[in-house]
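Quiz preparation item.
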């Protein structure tokens, strides 16, 4: 059996929504982008949404909109997808990594304050695997020190922390979502900024559109901008997917439950846990950990041989070759992130994973671990 890591879930309505755009004169800069923005912003309780070309461009514009530049420091996590740190480097600011909590893999708020200096401008937290970071503690620290909170919610659309959605202005001054095909909802490529801050929204709107001003005079450019726009086909797909979000999250919840049922009996691995403060978990990926003494890479090799796609998710950012080169990071700098990096495996996870596929993954995982336990 071949079991892919991820697979998009595109309905007949989703396809119709995209095709309908192709019959209009507006393939870009049309009405769907605004509708999609209003839908997502409204969902998380933010005043403004700004749709862009990717989650990475959303993060880049947030860093710029909060005035972060050369010489500034941004506190962030080393256990993430590389974009959450690269967006700081784009502006020649410095990512200051703080180690993560072993339970969730998210930034450990208890370690943030000692990393704050006179140059710190913001805390950029990530909701890894869809599990919210300790967003209330992060916001509290930021307020005490006059810092901005940027939330990389690219993996956590739909998750809630203490009754507030990830990306909510209750926690973040600005947050990013991403709509790559493996995310909860997709636009192909795409992303969105959400914020309550009118100035941040205005700057992001301008910068995604070549730095044009509000009046929209076509060849008047008020600031350095980019082409980070989302096109109309993508926005139509996003909107159609967004309308199915409840159904999608329920399907993912069902898959996560089935995995928990099938995998809990396997010794030598541990399953993802959801903190009690998380009032809703939106599953992005399903990441298991192998316990000490089990060789993660051998487990992955066996699964791969058996047709089961899997990934070492995440591989810590500070140990990526160019971060080592730029900043001199080495093994041992962020031990919790590194231990997770050595033990985590993302196994197949998407809306429509079947009971048979889950049973097969469980069977092969059990075999893979048993082979090592001799
Ligand atoms: C997906 C993702 C992003 C953005 O990815 P894009 O491919 O640029 O849309 C950023 N941060 C995290 C943690 C992600 O998982």
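Solution:
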């Amino acid at each position: 059996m071949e079991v892919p890591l991820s697979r998009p879930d595109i309905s007949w309505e989703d396809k119709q929504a995209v095709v309908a755009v192709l019959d209009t004169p507006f393939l870009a800069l049309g009405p769907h982008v605004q509708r999609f923005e209003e839908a997502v912003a409204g969902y998380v309780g933010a005043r403004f949404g700004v749709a862009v070309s990717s989650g990475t461009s959303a993060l880049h514009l947030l860093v710029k909109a909060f005035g972060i530049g050369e010489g500034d420091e941004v506190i962030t996590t080393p256990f993430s997808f590389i974009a959450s740190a690269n967006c700081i480097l784009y502006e020649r600011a410095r990512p200051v990594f703080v180690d993560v909590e072993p339970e969730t893999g998210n930034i450990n708020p208890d370690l943030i304050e000692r990393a704050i200096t006179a140059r710190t401008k913001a805390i950029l937290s990530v909701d890894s695997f869809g599990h919210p970071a300790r967003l209330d503690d992060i916001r509290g620290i930021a307020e005490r020190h006059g810092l901005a909170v940027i939330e990389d919610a690219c993996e956590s659309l739909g998750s809630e922390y203490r009754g507030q959605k990830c990306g909510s202005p209750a926690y973040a001054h600005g947050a990013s979502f991403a709509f790559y095909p493996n995310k909860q909802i997709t636009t192909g490529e795409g992303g969105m900024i959400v914020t309550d801050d009118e100035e941040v929204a205005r700057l992001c709107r301008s910068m995604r559109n070549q730095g044009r001003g509000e009046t929209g005079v076509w060849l008047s450019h008020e600031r350095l901008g980019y082409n980070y726009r989302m096109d109309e086909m993508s926005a139509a797909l996003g909107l159609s997917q967004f309308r199915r979000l409840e159904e999608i999250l329920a399907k993912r919840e069902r898959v996560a439950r089935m995995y928990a049922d099938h995998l809990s009996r396997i010794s030598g691995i541990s399953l993802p846990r959801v903190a009690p403060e998380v009032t809703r978990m939106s599953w992005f990926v399903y990441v298991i950990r192998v316990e000490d003494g089990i060789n993660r890479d051998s487990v992955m090799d066996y699964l791969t041989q058996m047709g089961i796609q899997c990934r070492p998710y995440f591989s810590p950012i500070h140990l990526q070759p160019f971060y080592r080169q730029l900043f001199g990071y080495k093994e041992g700098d962020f031990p919790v992130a590194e231990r997770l990096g050595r033990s985590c495996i993302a196994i197949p996870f998407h809306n429509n994973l079947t009971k048979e596929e889950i049973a097969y993954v469980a069977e092969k995982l059990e075999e893979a671990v048993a082979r090592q336990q001799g």
